[in-house]
Amino acid sequence: MTQRITRRSFLANAATVPAVAGVGYVSSRAAAQSKSANEKLNIMIIGCAGRGGHNMGQFKNSENIVGLCDIDEKNIARGTRSLGDQHKPTIYYDLRKAVEHKGLNAVIVSTTDHTHAPANVLAMRNGLHVYSEKPLAHTVREAHVVRQTYLERKDKIATQMGTQIHATDNYRRVVELVQHGTIGQITEAHVWCNRHSRQNPPPPIEGTKEAPSYLHWDLWVGPAPKRGYANGYHPGNLTWNRYWDIGNGILGDMGSHLIDLPYWALDLTHPTAVSSEAPKPHPVIYPSKLKVTWEHPKRGDKPHEGALKVVWYDGGSKPSNVLGVDVSKYGIGVLFVGTEGKLLADYGRRTVIKPDGSSQSGVSVPKPWIPKSRGHHAEWLHACKNDPSSTLCNFDYSGRLIEHNLLGTVAHRAGNKRLEYDAKQVKVTNDKLANIFVSKTYREGWGGIFD
């Protein structure tokens, strides 16, 4: 039975205290042993800059950082300096070798999107606890494989995706309002992000320059199609993220945080259909704006279990003109539409809007039931040492979320079509060509990970 995030599981796992890059990838080690609260984990940091540096900072004072892996030697140097003398990490450039480090208990993956799934799957197959930045995977099929790999080991390893907002009180209160029936039966959820995708000409596939000596370019390209070095890909996620070979644009990035709220509150599973509206698909780059609609079937009689649609907007589009709610002050947001009103929220705000137009901010249910988080990173650490199944954004939940979200990019890349989806087969059933974008072709040395 797969783990679902329910009121019962929240209460059972309630936190009561605040928290203080070679190929040899096919080995099968014993599962990572749970540590007592007083024992330190041996952690490998895969991706040392940006989110990787932040994530490392969450654990360097309490755990053993035994290895650093990055394709950029400058990033490794900065990471080593930030660790100080208390850690003596082994250096790796190839994530496939890093996960084989002797005596390892856990990995933290903060790489480019297209190398998240290889690192996650290889680490889990080696019995390691995994914390991964979002999104967990680069394709729909990768998300499915990540989830299945976790489910085969869920009693032995702790996993967590980096959706930090999931641990905040406001998201918890919104989930309770929806599931309590405050605005009646939910029929729609609209989600938007005001970030724009830059439409600069893409760098050439075959570069004209040599890669800097400190940059292990071929490992950065990883499973993507081979290309020569070019400026414009590295560093920074807002450079590479908009290219299909490496990222999935705004939906792949920010959708992980924003769609998380309706996905959680509405207790969603897999959609049965998805459609998109956007400019003509570009073979290389994410569109200037994108609108995606996922269709979910009716599952029960609770307020959050009715047949509904989830709609995503980016590039400056918002749902206000359609639904009559002023969201001008919400650069990002989620608007739930129910039979007895609407609920507007973002990371820190929530407002209930009744059918007569009256509104009230900061509303809570009479008896809130979702406990306060011990902290997003601390949830994972606690799970590693105590209860592997206790993380709320584990790879069961987050694997389904990312599979859901990336179906939106499939609908766009397939020609802005309405696609029908069979989750059991991980397959689009009404357009065979669309399945090209459900998965992808890998370079030698990478594709076998997902066989």
CATH topology of the largest domain: Rossmann fold
Any guess at the CATH architecture of the largest domain?
3-Layer(aba) Sandwich
CATH uppermost class of the largest domain? Alpha Beta
In the CATH hierarchy, what is the superfamily of the largest domain? NAD(P)-binding Rossmann-like Domain
What gap, in angstroms, lies between the N and C termini? 24 Å
Quaternary organisation: single chain
- Taken from the alpha-carbon principal axes, the silhouette is globular
Strand content: 15-25%
Number of strands: 16
Structural class: alpha/beta
How would you sum up the major sheet? 10 strands, mixed
Give the tally of structural domains.
2
Order of helices and strands: HEHEHEHEHEHEHEHHHHEEEHEEEEHHEE
Q: What is the average per-residue confidence, as pLDDT, rounded to a whole number?
A: 90
Low-pLDDT windows of residues: 1-31
How many DSSP H or I helices?
14
